[in-house]
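Recap for those who missed Tuesday's class. We walked through two folding examples back to back. For each one, the amino acid string is listed first and its predicted structure tokens come directly after. Nothing is annotated here on purpose, so try labeling regions yourself before you check the end of the notes.
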Amino acid sequence: MEKQYVLYRPDVETLLDDEAQIIDDILASMHRLNGRTREMYGHNVRVSHAKSHGLAVGELTILDNLPEPLAQGVFAQPGSHPVIVRLANVPGEIVPDAVNTQRGFAFKILGVTGTMLGEHQGQTTQDFVLDSGTSYFPNPDAKSFLLQHRTLIEHLPQFPDTLKEVVSTVARVTNEALNAVGIESSKLDFAGDSRIHPLAEAYYSQAPIRYGKYIAKLAVVPVSPAQKALADANEEVDSYKDANALRTATVGYLKDNDAEFEIRIQLCTDLEKMPVEEANKEWREDESPYLPVARIRLPKQDAYSEGRQQYIEGLSFCVSHCLVDHQPLGSIMRARLRAYPEMSRVRRTGNGQPLTEPASIEDIPA
């Protein structure tokens, strides 16, 4: 590997003016969304990734003989860890799958060692939260995300099946508002175009993280022959006949097939071309390609059994559940570092669920 990679140092991050207030306002907006959705559904749901398609368990294997820039943090030493994977829709509303939105892929690595961030000292789980669609985030920073979220709350319908129209309106209104204050927003969109099978999609951290001594983005890419065949066939999931088509597709696939994903890392080579604080700027792969560091294997299983349906609602996937070596970076991620644990506590406390992390894969119902 001949490329020179940017070393992490604290000053790669630059706080926004009034950033603390901006994040306070994001949290207030999320609390309002939580109140609206609690009223709609009769219980607390996640303010992001509300509708789950499945919960799967498996094994994460770190590749042997990784070069030093890739052998960092949880991936520093070859070996295996139990892993828990949740697939979901991205919005904070439980919408029919005919409303075509981004999908989420979150995974929790168990049995990690090292210094954890903040309040998670003493825990042994490392979470990564990823989305489909693009390798960059739709908003440049927390300020534009706040404007988007406020606009979404204003247009949130009383009936979830009208969300597709609302999504289009919110995107247009928010883009116009951002452009009016000089924020580039041509990439801002809330709905995806893909109807690909959830297990045939690639997923991305979108915003950067610390990667031990370096700075990186992370991707999870399907690699088993069966998954690649789904992707190559561009086989659509018929979500118009089945309101839970993505769940049906996920659960059906895992009942009959193993799934395998490759974890890939894109290391930062130039802070001008691959900025930390402009989350909507694409890190071009001709500048730095995604390189493999590990594999996730999910054996055949019932990913939405009755036990798992109940368990998944009390499970938290949180960007702050992480090693210091994988600290999220940039204002979008700094907002997440506050929002994820707070809203997780609100959801689980409001639903009478425990605020605990799984200690073993055996904690997950079959």
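Example two. Treat it independently of the first, because the proteins are unrelated.
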Amino acid sequence: MKMRGIEVAAFGGPKSLVFRDDLAPPTLGDHDVLVKNHFAGVNFKDLLLCRGAYHGGNPNLPFIPGIEAAGVITEVGPKVSRFTVGQRVAYMTGSMASKHNQCYAEYNRIGETGCIHAIPDDLPLDAACALVIQGLTMHYLTSDCFTPSPGDVVLVHGGGGGLGLLMISRMKALGAVVVTTASHPDKRAAAKTNGADHVIDYTSEDFEEAVKTRFPSGIRCVFDGIGKRTFLKGLSCLQKRGTMVLYGNAGGEHPDPIAPTRLTQLGSLVLMRPALYDFVASQAEYQARLDEVYAWYKTGDINLDQLTRVPLATVSSLHEALVDRKVVGKAVLEI
């Protein structure tokens, strides 16, 4: 048997992703399940892995990209007890240093004790997939790193992306005043539709000046997934005892180190640099967080109104659009 999938044989940009229909399906171990993927999520980490630029380590070549998917279990290993054939599941692969990804393919193998979870019957597979990486990230950022009280002013960078839109809707459900940044008009419109109170076009306006003009006494929290070019400006926007949550470097560069005393000088600030994998350290934690994310989705506290679905074979074009920041909201591949 052969399967369809995307292979990267040499590190590079979007053109390095090649659609193939002759790939060997994975071989199951005793404690693995085989999932026939229906949808695979597309994430910024995928772009970094395909370029060979991921800070947690890169896969051995050739490899199949993709770190989240949803589908149906078609086979289980002889010692599997937690899952059965026919179950609809959503999963994410690996860890910071994982070499096994393989979600951009028709089939994938997942250990039964890994980050895999049976999904509710009334939840569509595309939504279940789209809410794994970015939904879980939104969950730990807003539940463990900083939970606003009603009226708190927070800044969420990248408000037109998949995670940004989830963050905005969740923050509004908690009663926060949300400031966000976005470049493309469609992304700014989506952020506004999701409830953002102030949307800054960072290509024509300095976000630091804009925030300080609107909130001269400072804001409570900055959620920054961009990195070096926004980090110090974001710190300067915080009020005394404010919180900076730095969770990524989508801008391409990590911030330069700063002395701890800098945080004192700026007003006893809190600085966090969390990573998702530390907040889904066990299958039980993964399942509990994802259950809550799915519940928020079903009650309307978060939404996926901007979900983009594209065929697997066109993934190169989708990656190009992501690099050019033209994709509004979350994107998933139909397999």
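Answers for example two:
The chain is about 30% helix and 25% strand.
The chain has two domains: 3-131+304-334, 134-276.
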